[in-house]
Design goal:
This protein is mostly helical and about 120 residues long. The protein has helices at about 1-20, 25-30, 35-45, 50-55, 60-115.
Length: about 120
């Protein structure tokens, strides 16, 4: 949850910067905060960022390059950490569940062995 909050704050800051820098150049991507957040979501997933960058680089190559390099490097790193955190959490819960099942099976086996030994 903390990583997701960090990603949302990071995207919001870059959306505000993107609107102030690129709103007149590309209003379809950065015309308002809502479009900018959606555009940055596309960029952070590394899905269609090249098309977005190509529309901006024709007029502001240096600014667009710096903006996208910083955003994609940090944003993708945060997103990958979020995915890794989810995978690790699920793996830990699966391992704990498996350990609990094994302990129950061992307890049942021991109980069955004790029941067999009592009639002597």
């Amino acid at each position: 949850a903390n990583i997701l909050l960090l990603l949302m704050i990071f995207m919001f800051v870059f959306a505000v910067i993107g609107v102030s820098l690129f709103a007149t150049i590309s209003p379809s991507y950065f015309g308002n905060l809502e479009n900018a957040m959606f555009t940055l979501f596309i960029c952070v997933t590394l899905d269609g960022w090249i098309e977005i960058f190509n529309t901006l680089r024709t007029q502001t190559f240096a600014v667009a390059s710096i903006y996208f390099v910083i955003f994609i490097l940090i944003g993708a790193f945060i997103l990958i950490n979020l995915v890794v955190a989810v995978v690790v959490t699920n793996l830990e819960s699966a391992i704990a569940e498996q350990d609990e099942l094994e302990l129950q099976q061992m307890a049942e086996e021991k109980g069955n062995q004790d029941d067999k030994e009592e009639p002597r």
